[in-house]
Amino acid sequence: MSDLLKIAGKTYQSRLLVGTGKYKDFTQTRAAIDASGAEIVTVAIRRTNIGQTAGEPSLLEYLPPEEFTYLPNTAGCYSADDAVRTLRLARELLDGHRLVKLEVLGDPNTLYPNMIETIAAAKVLVKDGFDVMVYCSDDPIIAKQLEEIGCCAVMPLASLIGSGMGILNPWNLQIIIANAQIPVLVDAGVGTASDAAIAMELGCQGVLMNTAIAAARDPVLMASAMKKAVEAGREAYLAGRMPKKLYSASPSSPTTGLIA
């Protein structure tokens, strides 16, 4: 494939990024990741053992870093200081790993991002040598500021984390995409395959999800569906949809040479 996702100088065939939380066990996590075809997997450093808790099963045993690109995230952080501290710990645990997902939350009820703290953390992390993919609001001005700070990707929410409400903000997403010189990925709010396809049809370069797969009745089957949806949405975007024509029908069959 020549149409590859490029983030922080590295290319990936899959445009679906998948979280590793909320599954019943690490075995199901591995099965879902395999079905999704994802090459980048996110891990919440505060909630998942990747070696910081001795004697307990480690995600590294089920998803070896030599097979997947890890994306440590700051889920559960409510301040810039906590987020920076968490990602510095992740870098130590993963032998100098630089690619990270920054999210600084505003409150525990909505999990909406606190953009003031997010921007503060992004400045520190970029200066500290991290490649920062950042969860953000759907504000085009904020998204551009994060790009100018030096983040390698912006990831505006489609709707609230874990809500499954789908793409509620297509117009703002399109503005962000049109103005960005770095990858734009939808992060949060995807509920089913059609949501992922819509995100890709809008021009997003990828989709990051966790709950939509892990909370499905059959997570492995849903992971497979998401893989297909992201691929189909990307192909539709590249193909270019036909124009919408209100009250203007256009027959698909010839209108000349009809039998009288």
TrEMBL record:
Signal peptide interval? none
Do you know which InterPro entries this protein is assigned to? Aldolase_TIM, Thiazole_synthase_ThiG, ThiG
Write down the EC number. Answer: 2.8.1.10
Q: Where is the Thiazole synthase ThiG domain?
A: 6-254
Pathway in which this enzyme or protein is active? Cofactor biosynthesis; thiamine diphosphate biosynthesis
Q: Which Gene3D superfamilies match?
A: Aldolase class I (3.20.20.70)
Q: What class of enzyme is it?
A: transferase
Annotated SUPFAM superfamilies: ThiG-like (SSF110399)
Q: Which UniProt keywords apply?
A: Schiff base, Thiamine biosynthesis, Transferase
Which reaction is this enzyme known to catalyze? [ThiS sulfur-carrier protein]-C-terminal-Gly-aminoethanethioate + 2-iminoacetate + 1-deoxy-D-xylulose 5-phosphate = [ThiS sulfur-carrier protein]-C-terminal Gly-Gly + 2-[(2R,5Z)-2-carboxy-4-methylthiazol-5(2H)-ylidene]ethyl phosphate + 2 H2O + H(+)
Q: Which Pfam families match?
A: ThiG (PF05690)
| Listed GO MF terms | thiazole synthase activity
The record's section on HAMAP family has: ThiG
Outline what the protein does.
Catalyzes the rearrangement of 1-deoxy-D-xylulose 5-phosphate (DXP) to produce the thiazole phosphate moiety of thiamine. Sulfur is provided by the thiocarboxylate moiety of the carrier protein ThiS. In vitro, sulfur can be provided by H(2)S.
Question: What name has this protein been given in UniProt?
Answer: thiazole synthase
The protein's organism comes out as: mine drainage metagenome
- Organism classification: unclassified sequences, metagenomes, ecological metagenomes
Query: Quick one: which gene encodes this?
Result: thiG_9
